[in-house]
Amino acid sequence: MDAKRILTFLRQLMANNNREWFQEHKKEYEAIRADFEQGVQQALERIATFDASIAHLKVKDCTYRFYRDTRFSNDKSPYKNHLGAYIAAHGKKALHGGYYIHLEPGHCMVACGNYWLPTNILTSCRNEIMANTEEWLRCVRSPEFLKYFGSPVASSFKAPTDVASWDQPQGFGLERLKTCPAGFPRDWEYVEYLRQKDYCCWHQVADDFYQGDGWLDAIEPMFRTAKPMMDMMNSVIDDYE
To answer: Does residue 44 surpass a pLDDT of 60?
Structure first.
């Protein structure tokens, strides 16, 4: 994948996010889009070697429209400033977790897991964590997981906020409750995992990370490391889908 060319185009677009400029440079967009989609196909083939559940997916199942929906946004910029692909066995709109790659100038990223979970499903996920604590800790407290993604009690959350940000170098959980959820023991040793409102983990990467083909070797250990955590949550979530 020619990440340098893709990010150069996106930087130019960020400075000229209007329809006139885009139409003048549409051929370049089509070229970088085709290059990105070829990279997504490579990612699909690599991930399928250790997660057969996504083997049926096509590139179009994983990518998004480049045009922004501005109806309910104060930002009326017509185009996104990034390219992303979400590789999830049940589709992009399902709650079943998946793998995500993201190219954006200064904010390239690798992510994995589940987010935007309804309260009833979160309750079941929390019960699963308490019922299988040892297995959960093997997933999220392994040296590899902590190296790539950290923990919900690390730098992801800084008082007084309980919302993390994709802009942070790494993280596990974008939002959390201020206190222990109702019905769960407040004094439980690992209560930080019950306070999470999602089970998504991410790792920021340099702008040159996706350049060439070496990135495939780099994302594999990250996704392999996150997969056991995601599998535990998917085992619960799938009962609701």
So the answer is: yes
d(CA 193, CA 236): 15
**Confidence (pLDDT) at 156:** 46
Say whether pLDDT at 211 is over 90. Answer: yes
Task: List, as one string, the DSSP characters of 186-229.
Answer: TT-TTGGGTSBS-EEEEEE--TTTTSSSTHHHHHHHHHHHHHHH
Three-state secondary structure call for residue 121: helix
Taking all residues of the chain, what is their mean pLDDT, rounded to a whole number?
A: 93
> What is the rounded CA–CA span in Å between residue 136 and residue 141?
8
**What are the backbone dihedrals phi and psi of residue 129, each rounded to the nearest 5 degrees, phi first?**
-65, -45
Quick check: 109 and 102 in contact, CB under 8 A? Answer: yes
**Alpha carbon distance 126, 131 (integer Å):** 9
Rounded to 5 degrees, φ, ψ at 239 are -70, -15
Residue at token pair 């702008």: 207
Helices (H), the chain: 3-15, 19-24, 26-47, 119-131, 133-140, 143-149, 215-237
At a CB cut-off of 8 Å and minimum separation 6, what does 44 contact?
Answer: 54, 55, 57, 59, 62, 87
Can you give the pTM of this predicted structure? 0.94
Residue 162: the pLDDT is 66
